[in-house]
Amino acid sequence: MTEGLPLLPVIWFGVIGFAIMMYVLLDGFVLGIGVLAPFAEDERQLDTMMNTAAPIWDGNETWLVLGGAGLLAAFPKAYAIILSTLYLPVLVMLAALVLRGVSFEFRFKANKSKALWGTCFAIGSILAAFAQGVILGAIAEGLPLREASVVGGALHWFSPFSMLCGAAVVFGYALLGSTWLILKTEGAMQTIAYSLTRPLVAVVIAFMVLVSTSLPFLSSQIMARWFNDGNFMWLSPVPLLALINAVVLWRAVMRKAEVLPFLAAISFFLLGFIGLLVGLWPNLLPPSLSIWDAAAAPSSQMFTLVGLAVMLPVILGYVWWSYSVFRGKVTEGGNYH
Amino acid sequence: MFDLSPVLLSRIQFGFVMSFHILFPAFTIGLASWLAFLGGAYLKTKRVIYRELYLFWLKIFAVSFGLGVVSGIVMSFQFGTNWSELSIRAGNILGPLLSYEVLTAFFLEASFLGVMLFGWRRVSPRIHFLATCMVALGTLLSTFWIISANSWMHTPQGYEIKDGVFFPVSWLEIVFNPSFPYRLVHMTLAAFITTCFVIGGISAVYLLKARHREGAVLQLKLAIVFGAIAVPLQIIAGDFHGLNVREHQPMKLAAMEGHWETKRGAPLLLWAVPDAKNERNTQEIAIPKLGSLILTHDINGEVRGLKEFPREERPPVAPVFYAFRVMVGIGMAMLCLIVWSIVQWRRGRLESSKALLRAWMVLTPAGFVAVLAGWYTTEIGRQPYIIYGLMRTSEAATAVDATSVLTSLFVFGAVYLFVFTSGVIYLLKMLRKGPQPVEAHQQVPGFETASHPISAGQHFESLK
Questions:
Q1: Calpha distance A67→B66 (Å, rounded)
Q2: ipTM of the complex in this document
C-alpha cells in the first residue's frame, strides 16, 4: 500500500515520532514530579523534588516545541488541523505549561507565597498532563475529518475514551516522576517515592490494558491493523514485551532497585507509544489523513531535514553533557550544588 | 455594538500574547550578552565586582528568560490554533524557518542555561563562561531565524504559489529576503539598547540612593559608552530600514508619515491627528521639506501619499502614525540623555548630577516602550495583509467559533495577568535588593531555600 510513494514523509513521520517520544519521556517525568507534588510532606521536600529537575526542565520542554515546529514544517496540514480542532484542550495545555514553568522560577524567589507557587506547580502539571492525554486520545480515536478539513463542534473531542487517556497520562507521568525521584533522591524522599511507585505501577498497567483493549473497538482501522490477515502474529511481540516489561518493573520496585524502575518505566512508555504508532500508520490523523496527504513540499521537508541531520547529534551531545553535569543524588540541603 | 468575529478576537489574542512575549526576549537578548561580558571580564581581571554583578544579573535573567520561554511556547502553537489557514498555506515556508530556530537556538539556550544557573560548582569557571556564551549565542541565533520568518511575511520572495499554497523555490532568497537585514540589525540593536537603559537606569537609582556605589558607577559608565555607540547606530539603521519600507511597503510608510497626498518636497509631520474618514490630518505641526529629505535623501524627492492606494488596501493610519512617533521620540530622548551624560562625565559630575541620574531612572523602561511601539508600527502598518500583498489577515484565521476564541482570550488574559504581575513583583524585589557581596551567595541563585550553608571560604574556593 505504500510502494511508489515518496520516502521523505516516512522519514519525517519517524522524526516527529522521535521528538514527541523524547518530550513524553523527558517532560513526562518533570510533569510527573508536579503531579506528585501534593505528596511532599513539607516545603523542603518539595524543594528537593523540584531541584532534581530545575536545571533541565527547560530543555525537556523544548522537545515539545521541536515537535510543534517540526510538524508545521513537515506536515503543515496536520499541524493546522490538530491545533485548531483541539483548540480548547490545546489552550488548557498551554496555559497549564505557563503556570508550571513560571512556578519553577518564582517558587525559589518567593518567601510568603512559596506555598502558592507549589500549588500552581501541581495544578499546572496535572492539567498539562491531562490535556496531553485528551489530545492524544482524541487523535487516536479519529478526528472528525472531511476532505481533510474538520467538521464537528468545539467539544467534539470530549468522549469517554479521551477522558480515559487524560487520566492514563496523568498517572503514567506520575510513574515516570516517582521512578525518577527514586533514581535522584535518597532517605525520606526516596522512601516516599518507593511507596508511591508501587500503587502507581498497578494503576498504570491497568490503564494500559484499558486503553489498548478499548481502542480497537472504537476504530475499525486499528482493529484491522492488529487482528486482520494474521497481523497479530508478527505484531504480538509488542504486547508480549509490554507484559514482560510490566513484570520487570514490578519486581524492580519490590526489591528496591534504584536505576531499573526508571528505565523500565521508560521502556513501558516506549512500547505503548510503538503500539499506538503501529495502529495509526500510515495515517497521521486517522481516519483519513495519511502522511502523504499532509506532507509539506519536498523542498521544505528536505531543507529542514538537512538542518536536523546536522543539529540533532550536536543537540543530543550537549543535552547528554548537561545531564552528566547534574548526575548523582539530590539531597535535602544541597550537596547537589 | 462591536463585531466580535473570530478573526478580530484572534488578532486581539495574538497581539496581546505577542506584546507580552516580546518584552522578555527584548530584554534577555541584551542581558545574555551582558552576562557574557561580565563573565569574561571576571575571568580576565579577577575583580570581584564583576562576579557580584554577574550573580546579580543572572537572577534577573533567570526570571525574565523563564517568562520568555513559557510565553514563547504559546506563540509557537498559536499559528495552528488561531491562524491555521496561514499554517496550511505558508507552512511550507514558515515551518522550516521556525524549526531551524528550535534546532539552532532553543536547545542551545535551554541546555546551557541549566549549567549557567545551577552548574557553577560542578564545572570549571572556563566551562561556566562557555555556557554563558552559548546562551548568548542562542539568543542571537533565535533572533536571526524568527526575524527572517517575520521579514519574509513583510517582503516575501523565493516562492511560487500553487492553488493558493506557498511553495519554496529558493531558500537563500527566502531566508535573506529584502527587509531581513534591516529588520535584524534594527531589532538586535533595539534589544541591546533596551538592556543598556535598564542597566544604566537601575545603576542611577542605586547612585541616587547612595547604594552599591562601586558597581553602579561601573555599570553606568559602561551603559553610557555602549549607548554612545549603539544609539546613533540605531538611528542610522532605522533610517535605512525606513528607506527599505519606502521601497517595499509604500502604504505603511505613508501611514507612518501621515501623508495623504503624493508630494515633492513633502514636510515632516511632528504631530497631527489623522482623520481616515475624510482622508486628511488636523492639528498639523510640520517642518517643510524635511520629510522628503529624510525619506528620499533629496529635498525635493517624491513621497507617495495614502490616497494613491484604494481604501481597502490601507492600514489603520492613526495607530501606525502615533506608534512610530512614540518610537522615534524615545530614540531621540535616549540620544539626548547619552550626550548629556558624556558632557557631565567629562566635567566629572556624573555621580553628583541628580537631574542626570533622575533622567536615567525615568528612561529605565524606555526601551521596552520603544520596542512595542516599533512592533506596532511595523505589524499594524502591514495590515490588511498577513503576507504582504499576497494573503490577507482575514483569510488566515482558523474557522473556529467565537466562543472558543473568547474563552482562550479570557484564560490567557487571566493567566498572563497573574504571571506577569508576579514576575514584575519578583524582579522589582531583586532589583531593590541589588548586587550582594559574593560571600553572601551561599547558595546558587534560585536555590536560596535549599539551604545548606557552605562557609564563605569554601565557597570562594569554588569560584577560583
A1: 20
A2: 0.89
